[in-house]
Each structure stands twice: as C-alpha cells, then as structure tokens.
Amino acid sequence: MPIPIAKHALDKLNSADSRFNLDISGVAGFFGGDVAVSAMGTIHLYRGRRWLGWYNSPGSYDIAKSYGVLCKSRIWDGLYPGVNVDPAVLFGLNHKTGPAYRGVHSGTAMARTGHIGYLLAEECKDLNPVHTAVGRVSSTVTVTVVDLNAVPVEYDVHPVIADRFATYLALVPISTTLAASILSVIVAGDWYSFGLILFGALVSGSSCIIIGSAKLQLRRPEPAPTSPPGDGILGADSSNIIVLLGPEHATNIVTKGGFHLHFGGEPQYNMIGICALFLTIQFLAQLLIIPVGTLFGQLMFLASLAASWLYTAFLSSIDRESLQRAIVNAQVLRDPPKLKYSLGTRTMGAVFALLVLRDSFEGKP
Question: For residues 291 and 40, is the Cβ–Cβ distance under 8 A?
Fold first, then answer.
C-alpha cells in the first residue's frame, strides 16, 4: 500500500543509521573563505569587533592559510609557507603608494609618499570645489589647500571606529550558532554536530580575540628641532594639486607616516600561529565528523555556516579604505580645513598654488 511504503521510507530517512547525508564535508572548510578573510581585515578598525567572533565561521582553512604566513619560525613556515609580510600590509592598512611631494622650505623631494599620503589624496579628490575661477577653460585643474597647523606635536594614536549596527548584527550568527548546536542534540540526538558547531564557534571567537588584540598605531619620523615649515605640494596627478600648509611634524605624517599593528610576541607571532593551527584542526574535524552526523545535524551545521557567511559578507562589503580615510581625517590630522578650487588651465592652477605658497613664506594664513 502507498501509505505504509511512504511511512517506511520516511522512517528510514530519519533513522540514526541512515546513509543519506548532504556530503558537505568537502566544502565546509572552503565555503566563504575569501569573504571570511576580507571580513577579518576590519577587526582592527571597529571598537569591540574582536569580542564578537563567537560563531561557526566559514572558510577556516583559508583564514589559517592567509594569516599563518605572519609567523616567523621553521615550524610555522613549514606549516604555512609564504612570504613573511608586515601585519599592517597583510591587513591592508599600509600597502598603498601616495603621490609625489616637494617641500618648498626644506627642498625635500619625494617621488612617492606612503599610505597616509594616498588616503589624503583620495579624500581631496572627493571634495567639491568651493570656488571656480572664471576665464578660459582648456584643461581643468583643481588645487586643494590643506591646513595642517592644528596637528599636535605629540599624541598617542589608537584609531578605532564605533558602529553599533555592526555590533548588534553580530548577535544574529552568534545566536544562530548556539541554537543550531542545541537543536541538533534535542531534535536528533546528534552530539557530533553539536560538538563540531561549538568547536567552530570557540575557534573563531578565540582567533578574533587574539588577532584583534593588536594595537593600531601611527608611525612617523620625528623631525629635527630646527626643521623649517613643511609647506609643500602633494601632486596627486596633473589635474589635481594638493598644497600642504603646516609644520614639518604634520607633513611628515602625510608624506612618511603609516599605520602599524603591534602584536604581543613580535616578531615570531606564535599566538597567530596557534590560531592558524586550531583553524586547520577545525577544517580537518569538519572533513571527518560531518559525514558521521545525522541529516538534521548536518542541516543545523549548514544553517550556522549560512548565518555566519551572511554576517562576514556584510563585514567584507564595508569599504575599508573609507574607514581608514575617516580615521586619518578625524583622529590623526584632527579635521584639517580643506578648500578646493577649480581653475580652467594648468597654468592658472600652477600659478595659484605658487601664490598660496608665497603667502606661507610671508607668514600669511
């Protein structure tokens, strides 16, 4: 009869020894890897982000492989081969090249500046002109005057951004992970899926705490006490000129400064290596244990991964460069006045920039 046959098939599917499973063990450690690595890059920019990683994060193998290269020893180099790079470069905090700079008082000539110079140049490009010069127009040139005189001589910079929405949104994958682990035991008695989901949350949360423990700092060379003013031209390109006005210590931030991540245990970074090792163990455990679990437990594991992937996708969608620009503008340069002018020809732009610098020689604002 059709009804008994259907009931028998359903009982067989739901039985603990059913051979049917989703076979997701081969992709669990790789699913969402790029998104998870990109999301980890925001951990030093948000206040409190390091404490909100208690969810079954996807892409454990990719995260381990990406950050394991920070460690410097034969053991870690063997487990995670690759070029040892500076942490700030790896996290995308000090990897851009800025435009050329020439100081009018000191005669300093730099073919390129650092990451801070790049961020300031991009910030100036997005400004709207406050005045457009009348006259002939052949090749429009913009001149942005940036006043850095309010930048303090000594300060301790730990730039972070507070975002309550990102903080509260982390409760979604955390609660989903917890609910999935509990339901896998209550509904299906699947202790394998229960342990694997919680183990993933513990590894992810511990990794976020350790990787996010680095202090984000600003490094710049200290000028000599007798250094002349740092006024000069930051040439973004032929159509965008930036005039910097201010003391040498302030322009040094723009031309030679950069972000630095200070980890405990430098320069070996053994704690990062331990995090990468546990992430690798998590990946291997997923390969071995997921097929043993019940169908319902596998569904719960997949649900926890899906919720975590959506959250990490949100974090990776955030423009980290915009966050860095906001940090530089508000917390490093202390909201310097920036006035942008549009001129019709390159000659007019060059003359206007020189006139602004001439006034700086005469001590005029």
Answer: no
Is 245 in a helix, a strand, or coil?
strand
For 270-328, write each residue's pLDDT tens digit: 889 999 999 999 988 888 888 888 889 888 999 999 999 999 999 888 888 888 998 89
CA atoms within 13 A on the CB side of 37: 20
pTM attached to this predicted model = 0.84
Distance CA(103)–CA(249), nearest Å, equals: 13
Beta bridge partners of 103: 232
For 147-171, the pLDDT digits (tens) are 999 888 776 666 677 777 777 899 9
The angle at the Cα of 100, spanning 97 to 106, to the nearest 5 degrees, equals 125
DSSP secondary structure of 127-183: SPPSEE--S--SS-EEEEEEE-TTS-SS------B--HHHHHHTHHHHHHHHHHHHH
